[in-house]
Amino acid sequence: MPVNLSTPVAAQLLPVAGVSLGVAEANIKRPDRKDLLVMQFCDGARVAGVFTKNRFCAAPVIVAREHLAQSAVAGSTGIRALLVNTGNANAGTGEHGMRDARTSCAALAGLLGCKASQILPFSTGVIMEILPVAKIAAGLPGAVTNMRADNWLAAAEAIMTTDIVAKAISRQVTIDGVAITITGIAKGSGMIHPNMATMLGYIATDAKIAQPLLQAMVAEAANRSFNCITVDGDTSTNDALMLIATGKAALPEVADAGSKAGKALQAAISEVAIHLAQAIVRDGEGATKFITVRVEGGTSEAECRKIGYAIAHSPLVKTAFFASDPNLGRILAAIGYAGIDDLDVAALKLYLDEVLVAENGGRAASYREEEGQRVMRQSDITIRVVLGRGAENATLWTCDFSYDYVKINASYRS
User: Fold this and answer.
1) Which residue positions does UniProt flag as site: Cleavage (predicted)?
2) Would the pLDDT of 267 be above 50?
């Protein structure tokens, strides 16, 4: 089961004015499961996003980028809906996949009375298999008929693949006396690695945000959340994080990141993104431990992240945590091969929660293995590395590797 993660409560997921969501069972991979989502936006809603950096990115990623670029040239986003399917990634499908992504957009546009270029497509599932467009087209009328403002939990369930628990959260923040709502959903469990992860994330707010700031906000939120997680070190072909601002709240347009409203919105949006990102790690395939890796005292944030990722990606570190085996020299080894050539290992300190494990280049004199094992038996653990060479820091989140991770991925297509 996921590590300290429970299913969201539908009543706690707040509608966002100007957003409606509909789901359907299109039988894309298997019957009797929600696998199709339509998110429709009011006229004037603005959309921004960040996408995978995998060079083998999926057809829907390419089409979504094109449609966003086209709408930006027109002077307004003009995006009216997102179309998401699970069960098939439409990646590694060449020109056929591009045609299928465009055909799916056209099918939904016909039902919503808009242009195909106003639809952003997203797919997740098995790579290098042809998208069953006919099934998607057949399922779309049901999804459109099903659209409601309070359908966030069903939407979160409709985008799951190997996820065990749906991932969704709402937050409200009051700015100049106006209550602003932010609600988000995400999926992801395996093939999780920064830039971004095998995840799809959708966050909506009723605030009115200028398009350039909206793009900056989603990039900042991604950098502080989904680009700080790793499950297995694999970067997906399909991931994307989208931020939608409907402008329905009675708050003047926010255009300045440094303003009181800009800072409050960024903090709340990032909080939602961090919650969703951590939920992905807690639901990591076969995960039994949620591990925070905090690297402090570096010369730059990039340096701290580099060391943090070396620890978080290490199969030897992750398997040791699964077994609750305090073989903590593995962490020192990962720090050492992170690529910081001038690192002074004698100045470094390593902690497990509050337990000092290593200092002065080796085991701390006060360290007792039973204390290390006590911490490693917990479901939530913090690895803290103090470099002693600067004032910068970074925090990442990861999980352990269990037998179930291999079982899940060995039989993923079955």
Assistant:
1) 197-198
2) yes
State both tokens at 292: 């925070």
**Dist. CA 157–CA 267, nearest whole Å:** 26
Confidence of residue 285 (pLDDT cuts 50, 70, 90): confident
Phi and psi at residue 361, to the nearest 5°:
85, 5
The alpha carbon dihedral of 104, 110, 114, 116 has a sign of positive
The band of 196, judged by pLDDT with boundaries at 50, 70 and 90, is very low
DSSP assigned state of 54: -
| Contact assessment for residue 35 and residue 86, using Cβ atoms and an 8 Å cutoff | yes
pTM of the model as a whole? 0.93
User: Does the annotation flag 354 for ligand binding?
Assistant: no
- 187 appears as a binding residue in the annotation: yes
Compute the average pLDDT of residues 48-58. Answer: 87
Instruction: Catalogue all structural domains in the chain, each as residue range(s) with its CATH number.
Output: 10-282 (3.60.70.12), 290-410 (3.10.20.340)
299 catalytically annotated? no
230 marked as part of a ligand binding site: no
DSSP of 131-154: --HHHHHHHHHHHHHT-BTT-HHH
Q: Which residues contact 365 (CB under 8 A, 6 or more apart)?
A: none
Nearest to 151 by CA among 21, 303, 332: 21
Q: Is the per-residue pLDDT at 89 higher than 80?
A: yes
Q: Where are the alpha helices (DSSP H) in 188-238?
A: 211-223
> Which listed residue (52, 162, 198, 246) is catalytic?
198
